[in-house]
Amino acid sequence: MAAQDQTSPKTRLQTRLRGFLNSLARPRRELLRIALQTGAATLATYLLVAGLGGLDLSWAIISALLTIGMSADLSYTYAVNRTAGACLGALIGLALAVLIGGPAIYALLVAVILANMVATIWPSLQYGAVTAAIVALEPDPELAAALSRTGAIVAGSCIGAVASFLIWPMRGRDRAEIGILDTLHDCQDMLTLINRGVSTDEHDRRDALHRRFLQHLDIARSRVAESRFSPALKTGADLRSAVRGVETLWHALVILDRAVTTERGDISAAALDRLAPAVDAVQDSAKRQIDRIIAMVKGTRDTAPPHDDLHSVVARARDQATDLAQEAATDWPGQARALHSVIFGLNETERQLDQISKILAVPDDRPDDARGVT
Asked: What domains, with CATH codes, occur in the chain?
């Protein structure tokens, strides 16, 4: 509730500069990693398929390129789905070309319609329509030609997946961890905004921050969904539970922000002067708690972070707000209502910080309720 940010201009500049440099470094690493994997997959596919012969080199290279994903988990999923779809599509295309006969357009239409109907039910098999169309369009469809293209697609997919695992591999859980860290940094930024007070510019920043958090949350969810191998953080915490924990923490911070900023117009200046130091202390303690949570996500802490500091600070702020609400209950009911909103926001923030810390704790140190034990 302070009128301005307590950090020095030099510290804020260093923080912004560090964030800017990190935002530039991350895409460069991604681009370099994908470039190395793509080059290795293309070279390996060319040497192996051309050396063995009997397979369609073009389709093998195309398949290898399309298999390279943003993570090894995603590349594996692409390879499995593309292999299954290619085999199914080749079977459909060959069968219809032989059974229907006549102009190729008839077999083509039926083949792609059937393949897409299957893909509607099982979206992972959508690549089947490609091979079904290729085989159905053959002037003289033969089993050998169908096997050549299908084998090329399978070979390229496998080589692309292997390249993702061997050349600078990035696991899906590592990408999910980055997404979760981004959302936690957004939560810290929200606490900073709460601490600065309210102005037109700050309202704009809140809107921008909320949009950024939703974007980061969506990215984190998609990365969690792509994680197939060890879908857990380094502490053993489930990725989905971690994302849900951050989301509920954000909602609690929004409640606290609304209570502190929107309701303060109903609180007298004298009451604000008495309450502000306690609420500011809560916000500072909450930011330190999120720092500990970030360390847990990175795997640099083996046990759950201590909560004593946060709990004691919140208790003092809650007691201060309760005393002020009781004093204003008769003469100033609007102030009492506003203070109860602040108390609710404090309680929710404390509860959600406590809950996400339990979720991220190592399994042996995790309370029964965080492990789902009843």
From this structure: 27-166 (no CATH), 171-365 (1.20.58)
